[in-house]
Task: inverse folding
């Protein structure tokens, strides 16, 4: 069994980006600038945004954190987004989700300029991605493709089963795994909460990408020998033995499934760190496209 080490791979990618940024600085070019908008004070969101800002500092990007209170109106947020769209110094920006309930998430994501949409959530980018055109691929799926590619996992002609059809992971993943190119050319089955006999389908899979958010959902008796497993899930499970009172669990029962797998991502240290690295990669792409 080979561990698909997202911690190491993401650190390699960040170091590659750092080298590019150093060269940009030496040439007197403008370095990429990523902004993040955070509305409210949700603990997990603060942690995610903090990691993104630190990653920017590490690679030498400029970064701006726009912190807005819980009470921010939809109109105020849309105005902030307009300002970022029009600010030539900012190459790309993200709006950290989830947003407070009184704000329409779809309206907000639609307001982000597709040229600065480094999360790849705008319908224009999603559509371009589906049509094999140049776009911003959402960071988590982009990270999974990179992991598969860098570990030279064969995907061509394989049967890939994706569990979960979210707009940010499962749905784009199903499109990307079926398209032409590296880490593509798979035959894809997209499964979700209405799928019947899921085990029968997963037992036929050469590659399983699991993104449903149910801790240790995928068990060893649901997979065949030699399967490739990509575990996207991140759940906090109460654990008194931990100082912080919880443990992070993936969607895969790692101990038992890893015994049958040929490749598998751990949680933590698999897909999670790749997501941040690919956000940086998209910001670098945005800078390059803006020059
Ligand atoms: P979501 O929470 O929006 O949706 C869950 C999906 O799972 C739905 O499409 C639903 O149909 C499907 N599902 C639910 N129960 C099912 C079942 N019994 N059988 C088959 N399908 C079922 O999904 P999401 O936003 O992609 O998040 C999934 C998990 O991935 C969460 O734990 C989330 O925290 C994690 N996540 C991790 C990263 C990362 O960077 N590692 C990024 C995004 C999401």
Result:
């Amino acid at each position: 069994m080979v561990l698909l080490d997202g911690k190491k791979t993401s650190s390699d990618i960040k170091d590659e980006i750092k080298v590019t940024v150093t060269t940009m600085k030496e040439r007197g070019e403008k370095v990429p600038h990523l902004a993040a908008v955070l509305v409210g004070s949700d603990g997990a969101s603060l942690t995610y945004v903090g990691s993104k800002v630190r990653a920017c500092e590490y690679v030498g990007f400029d970064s701006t954190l726009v912190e807005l209170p819980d009470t921010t109106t939809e109109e105020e947020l849309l105005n902030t987004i307009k300002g970022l769209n029009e600010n030539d110094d900012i190459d790309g920006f993200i709006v950290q989700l989830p947003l407070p309930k009184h704000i329409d998430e779809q309206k907000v994501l639609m307001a982000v300029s597709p040229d600065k949409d480094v999360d790849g959530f705008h319908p224009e980018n999603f559509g371009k991605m589906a049509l094999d055109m140049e776009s911003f691929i959402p960071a988590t799926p982009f990270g999974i493709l990179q992991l598969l590619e860098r570990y030279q996992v064969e995907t061509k002609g394989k049967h890939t089963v994706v569990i979960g059809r979210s707009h940010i992971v499962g749905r784009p993943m199903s499109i990307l795994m079926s398209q032409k190119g590296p880490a593509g050319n798979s035959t894809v089955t997209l499964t979700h909460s209405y799928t019947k006999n899921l085990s029968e389908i997963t037992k036929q899979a050469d590659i399983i990408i699991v993104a449903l958010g149910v801790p240790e959902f995928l068990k060893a008796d649901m997979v065949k020998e030699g399967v490739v497993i990509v575990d996207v899930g991140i759940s906090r499970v109460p654990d008194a033995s931990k100082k912080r009172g919880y443990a992070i669990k993936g969607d895969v029962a790692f101990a038992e499934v890893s015994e049958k797998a040929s490749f598998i991502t751990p949680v933590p240290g698999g897909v999670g760190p790749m997501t941040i690295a690919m956000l940086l990669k998209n910001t670098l792409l945005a800078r390059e496209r803006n020059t």
User: Anything to note?
Assistant: DSSP finds ten helices and eleven strands in the chain. The longest strand covers residues 33-39.
